[in-house]
Amino acid sequence: MKAVLEQQGVPNPEMGLSVSFLDCSTGVSKFVERLPYIADAGQIQDAFLARTSKDEQEVFLIHSVPFRASGGVSLGSDYFTVLVYRRTDDGFVQDKKLTEYFGSGADIISIRDDDEKTLYSYPFKTQEDIKRQLSSDNYHSWFTGMPIERVVNSKASIYSMQSTSGDTGMYLVKGDRVKQERYSAGWVYILYVTAKKKEIRGWVLCERINGC
């Protein structure tokens, strides 16, 4: 089997790329889904097989779209989406859990007085980035469903969404202990319990947490 990227049907600038899988033994191509359309159809940066567990390899696609601003946020790179597909008896389907794990995003920058500062960098732009993550302790703990306790390594703002525009005004400090409940695209959804047993949940940049 191999992935086939195509513009199905009559060419249309408002239609995104679609994904089909071709059975090389029969010549039969099966449509799977259309890729995200975000102001532009974009392009495929890479397509490859990678081992996601001891017994399984899955297909990864890295899709990118030229995009420079969103919701008042300045972007410093293309907008990337990683999509993962697993094989079934009927062909290939999107692995929604892994697709959410690698997620989507673009570098977010702040420009003040001609000084450019990167606030967030999307971590999975290349095949090497993804394979490095697949061999990490973070991925192994997440994949096996182990409880994940983390320690904050520096002041960390808490966000209501996976974007620096969602700053809640709350933050964690170095040494705070949190529970990692979810991970996506370099962001960690944490649970923090205060000394008064109040539960606080939100998104934190992965780089602010040890072992992430």
What does this structure look like?
This protein is mainly β and about 210 residues long. The protein folds into two domains: about 1-135; about 150-210, SH3 type barrels. It is built from three helices and 18 strands. The strands form five sheets. Strands 4, 5, 8, 9 and 10 form a five-stranded antiparallel β-sheet that branches. The longest helix has 8 residues, at about 125-135. The model is unreliable at about 5-10 (pLDDT under 50).
Which class do the helix and strand fractions yield? mainly beta
Low-confidence stretches: 7-11
Shape field: globular
Strand content: over 45%
Largest sheet: 5 strands, antiparallel
Number of helices: 3
What is the number of strand segments? 18
Task: List the helices and strands in order.
Answer: EEEEEEEEEHEEEHHEEEEEE
List keywords for this structure.
11% helix, 212 residues, four-stranded antiparallel beta sheet, five-stranded antiparallel beta sheet, 3 helices, SH3 type barrels, mainly beta
Could you give a short description of this structure?
The protein is mainly β and 212 residues long. The protein is built from 3 helices and 18 strands.
What's the topology here?
Elements: E1 2-6, E2 18-23, E3 28-34, E4 43-53, E5 56-65, E6 69-70, E7 73-75, E8 79-88, E9 91-94, H1 96-102, E10 104-105, E11 108-112, E12 115-120, H2 127-134, H3 137-144, E13 149-151, E14 156-159, E15 167-172, E16 177-184, E17 187-193, E18 199-205
Antiparallel strand pairs: 1-2, 2-3, 4-5, 5-8, 6-7, 7-11, 8-9, 8-10, 11-12, 13-16, 14-15, 16-17, 17-18
